[in-house]
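Why does this matter for the project? Reviewers at the last site visit asked to see concrete outputs rather than summary tables. In response, this paragraph embeds two records directly. Each consists of the residue sequence and, immediately after it, the corresponding structure tokens. Nothing has been edited or filtered.
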Amino acid sequence: MRPKVHLTFDRVRYTVTTTPDGKPASLLDKLKGKKATVSRDLLCDVKADVSSGSVLAIMGPSGAGKTTLLNMLTLAKKGGVPTGNVKYNGKPLTVQCYNENCAYVEQFDTLWSSLTAWDHMVYAMELYHPKQSEADRNAAIDTLMDELGLADSQHVIAGNQFLR
């Protein structure tokens, strides 16, 4: 049985610098010498708390900041200044902690259409655990496939809009 996980974030703020008319400063603006001096908060004082066995739904209309919040929580560098507290099991979420314990599945399909679920897992395991033996890797993949409910579909190719 896996240990319980507790993710909290509070006083989360994400600030970007824009042109005075509210648009992101482009490279062309910078080359023309335009000053991007206006700070705008895309997120302001956001907080939540979620534990294993629970679901946290992040909902809102287009432009509400859902993707910005998720990018911030996954420690992605996207050009703004994140502040606030993000904790994993009571400790600050660091890049090392994130890489060891977390995953983020984006809404865009980034799978290779000609590979199966098993093939994708093998590729990921070889990248993240290159020193693991093949037997250990395969056992870990089998366990993960079972836990994710993919055991019956593990040899089905991912496909795409052209290849079903």
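We now turn to the second protein, recorded in exactly the same manner.
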Amino acid sequence: MRGLAVLGPSPTVTPLDRASLAGPWLGRVRGALRARRRQREVRDLLGQRETLLSSISDAFSALDSEWRYTYLNERVAENSRLCREEMIGRKIWEIFPQLNGTEFQKRCLRALATKTADTFEHFHEPWDRWLETRIYPAADGLVLLRTDITDRNRQGKLCRETDRRVRESRDRP
């Protein structure tokens, strides 16, 4: 009130007592604290999601309906020999143009159109690996899970070769 006396009479200044300021101020503080708590909860949930997805040993990625990477774990980046930041937001067909017209592209297009999951094995030249690819339709695109089965295929080939040799040796007189 002393400060108002110095300013003199003014119709645009209304003196308020502390009680009238406390109600709205406390409401704003409580609202800000609730918002901050929700931000921390969302941050923690995103951190948990990142920890879970990055712990997957297979190549895991998510694409939106425009074929842009929205998420990928380190395995995808490692196999691609690119960093995650170079891939996020870019279209898969732009990063891997050699996939255009392949069985992989056809199955991705079909899964997106029909909203049906698909699984198949194929040789992926850019990574020089045999992969088991699982395609899962999502609300806004596709999720890809690619398991490296190169060693499994090699072992299978070796077993088949060994079996063939054993049969041949038994059949000899």
